[in-house]
Design a protein that fits this description.
Length: 142
């Protein structure tokens, strides 16, 4: 039998960030999230700066958080980051009542949403330590 060596495939690392309980309806946040789905992180941030919707702010914050997690915690290159997944799901709803005429109370719900962002990218190249000058090597030997 032939000797089969296993080669470890380097799958791109996915890094997550969450925002839970955002005080906006999932429908409105989902419209903004659809604008930046499957885009590069740098492009998405530029787009969200110019979107005139209130939901753009929390989506932008979650993307920035995912970018910071990828760069600082997982050692990924910020220039290669791409948004692979952005999901907006319903969060908890608060039941409230609005006063109406003739002593009535009309119920309504304050909706909230959860935002999940996954980014993927390639790792930063490892830097080699700088070579010491010849003068310092001689001093260390003494």
């Amino acid at each position: 039998m032939a000797d089969i060596t296993k080669v470890k495939a380097t799958a791109p690392t996915k890094v997550r960030a969450f925002a839970r309980g955002v005080d906006q309806t999932p429908r409105k946040v989902g419209l903004v999230a659809a604008l930046v789905r499957n885009r590069a992180v740098a492009d998405a941030l530029v787009i969200l700066e110019h979107v005139p919707r209130r939901a753009a702010t929390p989506v932008k914050k979650v993307i920035e958080s995912a970018q910071a997690n990828a760069v600082n915690n997982h050692g990924l290159d910020a220039k290669t980051l791409v948004i692979t997944t952005i999901n907006v799901t319903t969060g908890p709803r608060m039941r409230r009542y609005k006063p109406a005429s003739r002593g009535r109370a009309l119920p309504f719900e304050k909706k909230s949403s959860h935002i999940l962002v996954e980014v993927a990218g390639s790792e930063k190249p490892k830097k080699k330590p700088a070579a010491k000058p010849a003068a310092e090597k001689k001093e260390e030997e003494k």
